[in-house]
Amino acid sequence: MKEEKSDYLLKVGERLFSDYGYKQVSIEDVVEQAGISTGGFYKFFKSKEDFYKIIIDDLEKKGIQEADKIISHFNSSLFQL
Q: Residues 14, 59: contact at Cβ < 8 Å?
């Protein structure tokens, strides 16, 4: 249950940061959209910066996984992992 809440917060944060940018999104915006308290947010994340970094790291990991999938379909032995 705890992991589900943090995952949900990350999804909300990703959407808000994508739509409005880092500077325009506050912790209050995130918790309002997620329907939790500010204290609830801080149970999972140290700060807005920490929250944003986790989102960016996750997006980077997903991008690398997608690139690996595409490359694995290339026929050249150079691209075979």
A: yes
16-59 pLDDT per residue, tens: 999 999 999 999 999 999 999 999 999 999 999 999 999 999 99
**What one-character DSSP code corresponds to residue 78?**
G
Task: Please give the C-alpha separations between residue 4 and each of 1, 10, 54, 67, in angstroms, as whole numbers.
Answer: 5, 10, 15, 27
What three-state secondary structure class fits 40?
A: helix
- The single-letter DSSP state of residue 22 is T
**Cα gap 21→43, rounded to integer Å:** 24
